Amino acid sequence: MLSELRTAHKVIGVKQSKKAIRDGQAIMVFVALDAEKRVTQPIYELCEQTGTEVSEITTMTELGDAAGIDVGAAVVTVLR
């Protein structure tokens, strides 16, 4: 799925991801393991509450590259 992230319908970032998860639009959430825990912990909790699948990626740089952006990303959410 990570290889398909560049072309997938997605949102990037914690705020947009939270909204997508709450609204039931998230298929899968990718979280960078090197992102600050205070940033990612609410995402994990929300995914657990909603039953949304989470996939962990080693670094923010790797996740940003996979999403097709020039900076690192803490969270990327693939949408329905």
Concise summary:
The protein is 39% helix and 25% strand. By secondary structure, it is of the alpha+beta class.
Secondary-structure map:
Blueprint: E1 10-12, H1 14-22, E2 26-32, H2 37-50, E3 53-57, H3 60-67, E4 75-79
Parallel strand pairs: 2-3
Antiparallel strand pairs: 1-4, 2-4
Helix pairs in contact: 1-2
Structure description:
This protein is an alpha+beta fold and 80 residues long. It has a single domain (2-79), classed as 2-Layer Sandwich (60s Ribosomal Protein L30, Chain: A), CATH 3.30.1330.30. 39% of the residues lie in helices and 25% in strands. The chain has three helices and four strands, in the order E-H-E-H-E-H-E. It has a four-stranded mixed sheet with strand order 1-4-2-3, with helices on both faces. The model has no long low-confidence stretch (mean pLDDT 97).
